[in-house]
């Protein structure tokens, strides 16, 4: 006998939690589709040559091999499980560049694999829900508006809790550090990125030989978004006489104002010049989304822009905007905040009690009718089970309605409908079922 | 520069084919849900102890390992990619046996992995769409009716081409072989299972030392379904005076008649006593579904019953009915038969032409309105692109409608709607859009 167990940090749901995850997936997919992102489904496995590049962190990789590889097959691993959906897409775009119509917009909701040391909200197999816009010529700033508003629409419809989308252009931060004579940008940005995860970044900045004045400037800079609203922040940067800076600020302003004027409620969006993703392959504006009032400062959705992600695969230049909702992480954070209510163990709305084999045809007709009007319905499988036990089954599974047909009802062409929530029972005709169930 | 390429025998779709696959998946999922199969999503990876058992074929296995496994981690592979959705479910049922409510019905549409020698319609990563009913006590025969009718409903709504569900009880074949004094059942059944893949099975039967009379009996037995209809076949078996046989025939008859009376059109279903799946873990009735008039005798959907699949994991007994649609194979066979029409490269129904940055707000309002009534709409991303090029883009992607707003229209609160299929253009108010697009 083998003790059955799943693999640590690979999650799986019980049926009630799976209903929630499916529902989240459907809402995200519907919103992505409404904004014309076409769906893709690349393999979970890629060649090592595809994934190996400046982006991959070897430590996190799962490699794959045929178990009974023959002697003449190479011993080295040549296949890896994908660690994100972006690198496979870069390969896909380059491979099919002559078949695709640009601007190319894709969505993909899929599992990715990363070996990580055990820690909260870091699964080793988890869902990402990505959207991307790729063009073979200059990608207009409106693409960023489209990407962001799509993410906003999806998060809004998920209706889980308040969230705030923090927007920045990473170059603003570099520019500011430069203006206060900081040399080691990268290291300082790395420290700033840690600000929500450590008590104070001051000792870390001191270690980088920054003086007190510089440190105070940095501290007030990264807090500016808390004390100033987005327009004030944009105005603050507009006061500097630096043509390059003003161009970046104008971009940010275009983005912010277009979002605001047209799509997005102000309270969900915030210019935050301290957002500073460490990842080195994005080049422009970025966002991170946090759940409001949560002390868990894990981003649930991010976005950035690359000038040319396919450079490893194609001679052609493909500018690129990407955004993603971290579906598995979002759900796990909401669970932790007790914000997800498991409302049902089943997708069934109606249970038809099954008492006599000779009434089977009659019962199945009811089932057939309800399915024809798109109501999920279940006929209890076994006619030998006592009615009390069948009702208990409905109760255990939180099925809201039960239909019972006795001999008398068959004669009268009616049925008994029991509402298990309100604990009410009534006799009605089959044609009146639809409105009684809604 | 790396030449981008996918892995052989791992398939991926271009956007137009992906629209078809998504649509197939949605229809199958909807039908499974209507028949109250709750959705599960177990990991793609399982422990070796879970998968290793009498069922696994070592040769087909992909094993997984952390690439940079540390010295103190074991060198042996401990994780495998799943090769079906059934063994992981057996593990799941045993692991959560006290949390699940029985009868437990699940659906899962997911990828599985099998290394196989390159051959047509055998991918190494492919989708299966499974349904299962599991109980912790005797599983009534009605479960088989429910499973089969659900598969039938899904295939019917896919509306691809004609199909025939072939039903059998494997024991009939054994019984018949016994009645003609054949000893080596398993080997003979293995040969019979090959009947559609070789020119003649006679030489193979001769190799098993069967005499001419026995061979003739077998040949006429496996052809009986072609010359007799289902009722005649049931009657044929009913003439034998063997209590055990009659019980099996009665089961088959119950199944066939219930399907026929209630759900299934006669032309889609056939009693075929030659169906003889080789797999050794099913114990009762089985089916295989073939596409009619196709010479490609690859099953696209199968079903069987186990008396106790979880025996390796739990002391408790769980009888089990399983069925599956081989989604990837079905689509690939239909493609080969030219039965799938790629009708669109996009899910977009309307393109809004984008000509002047100053009209952006106006255009986006149209987009927003259409999305609010669930119409997939696309605003061309770049206002600098000439209108001819934007129209060509819509044409390339086969987007059926285009909306154009000139200055005049804005003044009149109207828009121009161009139907690219009928090549017609008309001026209308935004509130009249919905009916013009339907």
N→C terminal distance of chain A:
48 Å
The percent of residues in helical segments of chain A reads 25-40%
Radius of gyration of chain A: 28 Å
What's the architecture of the domain at 15-161 and 294-336 in chain A, going by CATH? 2-Layer Sandwich
The chain pair with the largest interface is: A-B, 101 and 101 residues
Low-confidence stretches of chain A: none
> Per the principal axes of the C-alpha atoms, what is the gross shape of chain A?
elongated
- Global structural class of chain A: alpha+beta
The share of residues in extended strands of chain A comes to 15-25%
CATH topology of the domain at 15-161 and 294-336 in chain A: BirA Bifunctional Protein, domain 2
Instruction: State the fourth-level CATH superfamily of the domain at 15-161 and 294-336 in chain A.
Output: Bira Bifunctional Protein, Domain 2
In the CATH hierarchy, what is the class of the domain at 15-161 and 294-336 in chain A? Alpha Beta
Largest sheet of chain A: 8 strands, mixed
Number of helices of chain A: 15
Oligomer: homodimer
Mean pLDDT metric of chain A: 84
């Amino acid at each position: 006998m083998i003790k059955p167990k799943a693999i640590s940090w690979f999650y799986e749901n019980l049926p009630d939690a799976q209903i929630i995850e499916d529902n989240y997936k459907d809402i995200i997919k519907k919103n992505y589709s409404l904004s014309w992102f076409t769906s893709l489904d690349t393999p979970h496995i890629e060649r090592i040559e595809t994934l190996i590049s400046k982006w991959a962190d070897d430590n996190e990789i799962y490699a794959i091999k045929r178990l009974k590889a023959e002697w003449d097959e190479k011993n080295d691993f040549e296949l890896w499980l994908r660690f994100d959906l972006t690198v496979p897409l870069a390969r896909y775009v380059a491979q099919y560049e002559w078949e695709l119509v640009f601007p190319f917009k894709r969505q993909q909701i899929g599992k990715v694999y990363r070996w990580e040391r055990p820690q909260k909200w870091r699964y080793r197999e988890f869902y990402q829900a990505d959207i991307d816009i790729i063009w073979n010529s200059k990608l207009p700033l409106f693409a960023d508006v489209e990407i962001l508003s799509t993410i906003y629409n999806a998060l809004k419809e998920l209706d889980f809790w308040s969230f705030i989308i923090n927007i920045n252009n990473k170059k603003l931060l570099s520019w500011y550090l430069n203006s206060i004579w900081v040399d080691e940008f990268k290291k300082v940005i790395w420290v700033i990125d840690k600000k929500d995860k450590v008590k104070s970044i001051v000792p870390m900045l001191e270690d980088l030989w920054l003086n007190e004045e510089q440190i105070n400037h940095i501290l007030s800079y990264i807090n500016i978004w808390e004390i100033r609203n987005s327009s004030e922040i944009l105005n603050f940067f507009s006061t500097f006489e630096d043509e390059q800076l003003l161009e970046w600020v104008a971009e940010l302003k275009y983005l912010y104002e277009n979002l605001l004027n047209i799509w997005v409620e102000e309270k969900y969006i915030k210019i935050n010049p301290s957002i500073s993703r460490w990842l080195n392959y994005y080049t422009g504006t970025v966002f991170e989304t946090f759940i409001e009032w949560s002390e868990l400062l894990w981003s649930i959705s991010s976005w950035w822009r690359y000038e040319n992600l396919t450079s490893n695969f194609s001679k052609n230049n493909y500018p690129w905007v990407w955004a993603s909702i971290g579906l598995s992480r979002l759900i796990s954070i909401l669970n932790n905040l007790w914000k997800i209510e498991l409302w049902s163990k089943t997708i069934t709305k109606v249970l038809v009690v099954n008492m006599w084999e000779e009434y089977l045809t009659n019962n199945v007709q009811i089932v057939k009718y309800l399915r024809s009007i798109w109501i999920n319905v279940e006929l209890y499988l076994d006619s030998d089970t006592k009615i009390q036990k069948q009702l208990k089954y409905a109760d255990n599974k939180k099925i809201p309605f039960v239909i019972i047909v006795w001999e008398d009802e068959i004669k009268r062409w009616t049925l008994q409908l029991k509402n298990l929530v309100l604990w009410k029972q009534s006799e009605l005709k089959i044609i009146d079922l639809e409105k009684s169930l809604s």
